[in-house]
Task: structure prediction
Amino acid sequence: MIEQLNYTETKAPDTIETLIIFIHGYGANGKDLLQLAPYFQKHYKNCHFVAPNAPYATDYPDSYYWFPINNFNEDHLKEGVENSVPVINKFINYCKKQYKLSNQQIILFGFSQGSLLSIYYGLKQPEKFKAILAFSGGALSDINSIIKNKTPICLVHGLQDEILSPEHSLSTAENLTKEKHPNELKLIDNLGHSINLAGLEFAVDFLAKH
Result:
């Protein structure tokens, strides 16, 4: 059984009104995404930020993953995501208790593998989250079959992504739109498997509307 995840966090404001949980991609760590916190702090004064490390270590230093990716077969990915749900659920419940927050005060920020997990986990919960920000990821093709809430989803993807095609985010947006699920998509030219200022600005504008 996996114990509680190790995590990094920013200095908490006196009053926490919103919590952003960064869920990193394969081979990264929580601190990678926590570097984005200052950008959001400019817009959300009473926001706190936490960034867990995934439970499994790669062969490289300070490098982790949520589930193994041997291929991009849908069944393989779904098995990995479903196995990760109890892990991220335990951590998020810990955060809710620690900071006395509800789902509707929490934003899930996922990158790559973290996006896949954030969307799948976030939409399966009975109570909606404030938002899901999914960068360079997308969702499984059958995502509509598990939707249990109306958490708004912001999808951002580089058109030159060499790791995960932007088609993943595009098809996710199309599937969500068919279900009249609130979502917005930003495809960014001259951007690979990464996050840039244009994507962050789009995410902040999205949050202002939701």
